């Protein structure tokens, strides 16, 4: 769906996005992460055709942006960071207007507006003036205009902004539903959001792509947690002799070990060998499970040690 090659954008002397390349296929949710000023919004503005790259190439839905992006713009939905809404307009009128701007035909418009309002749970406010809406409600109107006409590509710049916990849950469920038939690229500062909805993340750091990986790969760690009824020194020594294990760490004040596997060891084979050793040592096995890396740590590593945004 998206092919970005050496995408670069400068604002005068500032290089906001620096030779960023990535490919995104059809469907699924890709999270764009990074500290404030990392270049996320600039990437999204270029993808939506709102900003031209200074250098590099961009193909969306098979079309090269160098030959114009009007056609693609009609088939994508974009929620910018600060969507300008017309405060004096009613929600339904605004969405009808947005549908017109998107080129949705008169006969399709009412249905498209109704579907978008229902999906974002804003139908109850359809006759309210936008000026009277709360921040979260306005955010939902913003998402509603982005999904008008069921676009195949959705670019959502911080869609969770200003939502209460209940609405956050609805928004995440909506994004997952939309991702069954569209590619969703969203930026966020919230790690739980990434965890809850994303299949893959792109981490930007100072305008460069610092990491591009699936959540599954990111979470994978080569460590296992072992809990036994009673820890002992002989058990620890026996574990150290298991060929698949690189190191054994006994956690203080509990009967638990953190076992780091050697590179490329199969965790299932290693687990079977560990369970055998525990039994041979006469210890009782309470728990043996793979440890997952937390996303905060992954983010810190990718951005050179600074904490999650
Ligand atoms: N119109 C502009 N003119 C000049 N510099 C800009 C402009 N827009 C963005 N920048 C600069 O480009 C860099 C990237 O900004 P961008 O808004 O893309 O970052 P971001 O990752 O979206 O940040 P945030 O998380 O704060 O929204 C920053 O250094 C910013 O100051």
TrEMBL record:
Keywords: ATP-binding, Nucleotide-binding, Transport. Pfam families: ABC_tran. Residues 2-231 form the ABC transporter domain. It comes from the Bacteria. GO terms for molecular function: ATP binding; ATP hydrolysis activity. SUPFAM superfamilies: P-loop containing nucleoside triphosphate hydrolases. InterPro entries: AAA+_ATPase (IPR003593), ABC_transporter-like_ATP-bd (IPR003439), P-loop_NTPase (IPR027417). PANTHER family: ABC TRANSPORTER, ATP-BINDING PROTEIN. Belongs to the ABC transporter superfamily. This is ABC transporter ATP-binding protein.
């Amino acid at each position: 769906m998206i092919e970005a090659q050496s995408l670069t954008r400068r604002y005068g002397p500032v290089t906001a996005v620096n030779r960023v390349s990535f490919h995104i296929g059809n469907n699924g949710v890709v999270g764009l992460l990074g500290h404030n000023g990392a270049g996320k919004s600039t990437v999204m503005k270029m993808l939506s055709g709102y900003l031209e790259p200074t250098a590099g190439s961009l193909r969306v839905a098979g079309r090269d942006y160098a030959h114009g992006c009007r056609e693609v713009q009609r088939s994508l939905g974009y929620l910018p960071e600060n969507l300008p809404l017309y405060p004096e307009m009613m929600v339904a009128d605004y969405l009808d207007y947005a549908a017109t701007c998107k080129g949705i035909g008169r006969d399709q418009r009412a249905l498209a507006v109704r579907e978008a309002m229902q999906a974002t749970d804003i139908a109850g406010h359809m006759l309210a003036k936008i000026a009277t809406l709360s921040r979260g409600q306005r955010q939902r109107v913003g998402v509603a205009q982005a999904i008008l006409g069921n676009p195949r590509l959705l670019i959502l710049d911080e869609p969770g902004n200003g939502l209460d916990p209940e609405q956050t849950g609805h928004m995440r469920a909506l994004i997952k539903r939309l991702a069954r038939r569209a590619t969703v690229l969203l930026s966020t500062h919230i790690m739980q959001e990434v965890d809850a909805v994303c299949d893959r993340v792109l981490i930007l750091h100072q305008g460069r792509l610092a990491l591009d990986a699936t959540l599954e790969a990111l979470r994978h760690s080569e460590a296992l947690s072992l809990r036994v009824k009673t820890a002992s020194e002989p058990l620890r020594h026996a574990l150290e002799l298991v060929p698949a294990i690189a190191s054994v760490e006994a956690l203080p004040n509990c009967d638990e070990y953190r076992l780091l596997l050697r590179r490329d060891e199969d965790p299932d084979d290693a687990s079977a060998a560990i369970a055998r050793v525990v039994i041979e040592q006469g210890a009782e096995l309470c728990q043996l499970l793979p440890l997952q890396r937390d996303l905060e740590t992954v983010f810190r590593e990718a951005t050179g040690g600074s904490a999650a945004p």
